[in-house]
Amino acid sequence: MPHTLFSQRRNMNDRKISTRVSMVAILLTCAAIVFITSSALNLGNWSSDYYMLYSRPNALASYLSLTGFEGVGASHLFILSAQRLAQSWARHVQWESRKDYDMVLIITDPYGLLTPMSAAILRGSGWMLIKVDPLYGKPSAPNYLAQNRYTHTAQFTKLQLWNLEGYNHIIYMDSDMLILKDVVNAIAPYKVTKETLGVAQCLDGPMINAGMLLITPSKPVFRDMMSEVMTSEYFTFYQEQGFLDVYWRNRTVIMPSHVNEFVMNITEDCVVLHFLAEYKPWKICPDPVVHARACEEWYSYDKSQ
Q1: How far apart are CA 187 and CA 200, in angstroms?
Q2: Domain map of the chain by residue range?
């Protein structure tokens, strides 16, 4: 009898051990599956396309700030807007004009808002994705700070384009712009050097609108600008625009206003349309009566997909 009881207890212990081993094996298997799947999908992460830079002599560039300041939904709308800019480049700029241009999208993404799917969509539209650290200037005056998104979206980051010395020149456009005509041909007569900056004539005042710039990259110029960002006097409400207006004063090459037309004042001669400030297409286009032409252009990309 004692021998039988001992055998039964041993069998029970063996079964318990076997069950625990099975549970551990199942947990390890699940963990392995999650790890392998996460690695394969690159969840919550994306890599920069540094190795693709400088494959062509010039670049079209834009800047995508995914700080989440305006909400995650707004960040995804700006991703869509960057895609539309790339599509308009392909639609309206002839191949002979754009064949010498890489497409470079610099991105600040501190919270991982750019999903692998969004990254694939942007790459599919032609962009090289370059992750950079955000650059900030002096804060706005206290009475402006609460309402000023420019401070929170690190607009000085676009100055990093001056570091891309492998390009002869860079056409920079904000990601909330659409090309309506061949912009390369439109700006061809305007030449810039490391000592000058190409800007579109601003019809609403003397300050530079930094939505459209023609840049000759230079690391020494970048370092010099950054050395003055915190010390020079400029209108901080508009952040990098106020700074560039002061830094490049009397050293600008003025391009026609048609290459940076604000959506409120669009004309038949418009080459590049700018949905600046609060006039974003997802805000004005639900009621397209006033901005009919701009909204028609924006929605035309939905129909072509």
Answers
A1: 10
A2: 50-303
Q: Using alpha carbons, list the distances in angstroms from residue 151 to 91, 182, 213, 283.
A: 33, 32, 20, 21
Is domain 50-303 annotated with CATH 3.40.190.10?
no
Most confident of 200-214, 261-275, 279-293: 261-275
Length of the chain: 305
Q: Hey, is 215 helix, strand or coil?
A: strand
Mean of pLDDT values over 14-20: 50
Which single residue is written with the structure tokens 């006033």?
A: 290
pTM of the model: 0.81
Residues 6 or more apart whose Cβ sits within 8 Å of residue 299: 285
Q: How far is Cα 109 from Cα 216, in angstroms, rounded to an integer?
A: 26
**Residue 155 three-state SS:** strand
Please report, for the chain, how many H helices and E strands are present, in that order: 11, 10
Contact predicate 69/152, CB 8 Å = yes
- Give the phi and the psi of residue 99 in degrees, each rounded to 5: -65, -20
- Strands 101-108 and 212-215, bridge-based pairing: unpaired
d(CA 170, CA 103): 10
Determine the 3-state secondary structure of 146 from DSSP: coil
Mapping DSSP to helix (H, G, I), strand (E, B) and coil, where does residue 261 land?
strand
- How big, in percent rounded to 5, are the helix, strand and coil portions of the chain? 45, 15, 40
* pLDDT, mean over the chain: 81
Q: How far apart are CA 127 and CA 33, in angstroms?
A: 32
Distance, CA of 113 to CA of 126 (rounded, Å): 20
Angle between helices 72-92 and 292-303 (to 10 degrees): 90
pLDDT greater at residue 122 or residue 6 = 122
- Given a contact cutoff of 8 angstroms between Cβ atoms, the answer to whether 145 and 151 are in contact is yes
